[in-house]
Design a protein that fits this description.
alpha/beta; single chain
């Protein structure tokens, strides 16, 4: 359904989709896989040997499976859990985040990760709209098993998380106080598809006036959806997006003028699911994913490293940076450190236009200059590693 795009792009970290909104699901997932497989792959660093062991735990009567990786000739003093962004995962078979994992183990950390339900070798069915609260409970189940197994480094557990993880990790912290947090392209409390739409229309060549017209159409449709309006009102409000060829090309809107009963029923179902969590913020016109998120962030009492790409066209990093500085930044126990990488995108890669879905093969999909060095230096500064 057309508005599932909002529920999905709430958690945007790579490309997300819906049949009538963004890109077709099959193309989107293929591109997501491509980005993750080559994500930060070309880092010219020599790595030590890594010991890799199977890891599995129970969650909601399903077995989720991943790996525990640790340096072979070093006793880790800490363990970092990777929390991915929105979408399916293929950590184990696809060797996702390989350079990140190698850098973290080379720095002396144990690294833990697993495939989401219904992905890789994990049991169950993948839920594209898994609530962030449920994702937090999933991670806590993994932590409990890590503690039970006494995995090396588990006396000090922290997180590396990207995009949607910006909601998940603070929720984990409420139940399991963490020892450190590396937040990459984190989110503020609001959904972010409006920002993605607006920034990418401008990158693609739309004028300010044209972009504002299309953005306002989306905002009106979003308000109708988020305040229990009707599908016909929503359909009419978003007509400019369906009539615009660039919006159809970039985001998958269709030019159809027909409305079926199936469309209406699907809209109602998505609307009910979407509005069951969070609330519509009348001041901003956006959906707040976590109520009182500022209070949740104020409970973070550990060192935090927040990393952003200055040309992120998917998440409004400036809003997140401001929120972090007004919450964790005033809490001396958080010891917030913020680093913004110039000419870098949402996944902290060097970019050209920095558009959503940009082909960066010409740049060999390289990480931002100093990305790994920044993390390692910060970990040493806070004595998480030696």
């Amino acid at each position: 359904m057309v508005h599932s795009l909002i529920a999905k792009t709430l958690f945007v970290s790579w490309q997300e989709s819906s049949k009538n909104t963004i890109l077709p699901m099959r193309k989107t997932r293929a591109f997501t896989c491509l980005l993750l497989i080559i994500y930060l792959w070309g880092t010219p660093k020599a790595f030590g040997q890594t010991v890799s062991e199977p890891f599995e735990f129970q969650f909601e009567n399903k077995t989720l499976r991943g790996l525990i990786e640790k340096p072979e000739h070093q006793t880790p003093k800490a363990l970092v859990i990777i929390i991915p962004g929105y979408g399916k995962t293929n950590f184990v078979e696809g060797n996702w985040y390989s350079s990140l994992r190698k850098n973290l183990t080379a720095a002396g950390l144990t690294v833990a990760f697993w495939d989401k339900m219904g992905c890789g070798k994990s049991d169950g069915t993948f839920d594209a709209q898994q609530p962030v609260e449920n994702s937090a409970h999933e991670a806590i189940a993994a932590i409990e098993e890590i503690k039970r197994l006494q995995i090396p480094g588990s006396s000090k557990i922290g997180f590396w998380g990207i995009s949607r993880a910006g909601w998940i990790v603070p929720l984990i912290n409420e139940q399991f106080p963490m020892d450190f947090w590396i937040s990459v392209s984190g989110t503020d409390d609001k959904e972010n598809f409006g920002y993605l739409l607006k920034s990418n229309l401008r990158i693609a060549g739309k004028s300010v006036e044209e972009t504002d017209t299309l953005y306002n159409a989306w905002m009106l449709g979003h308000k109708i959806f988020g305040t229990h309006g009707t599908y016909m009102d929503y359909f009419e409000a978003t007509r400019p997006l369906r009539q615009d060829s660039l919006s159809r090309k970039l985001f998958g809107y269709t030019q159809t003028s027909e409305v079926t009963e199936a469309d209406i029923q699907e809209f109602k179902q998505e609307q009910e699911q979407y509005t069951s969590k969070g609330h519509f913020d009348a001041e901003s016109g956006l959906w707040a994913v976590i109520d009182n998120f500022d209070q949740t962030l104020l409970k973070v009492n550990c060192p935090v490293l927040a990393l952003f790409g200055a040309k992120d066209s998917q998440v409004d990093w400036r809003k997140t940076k401001k929120l972090y500085e007004e919450t964790m930044g005033v809490n001396p126990d958080s010891e917030l450190t913020v680093k913004v990488f110039e000419n870098c995108n949402h996944v902290l890669q060097k970019c050209i236009s920095c558009a959503w879905g940009e082909d960066l093969s010409a740049l060999q999909w390289q990480a931002c200059d100093g990305y790994y060095e920044t993390m390692e230096g910060w970990l040493k500064k806070h004595r998480i590693i030696e």
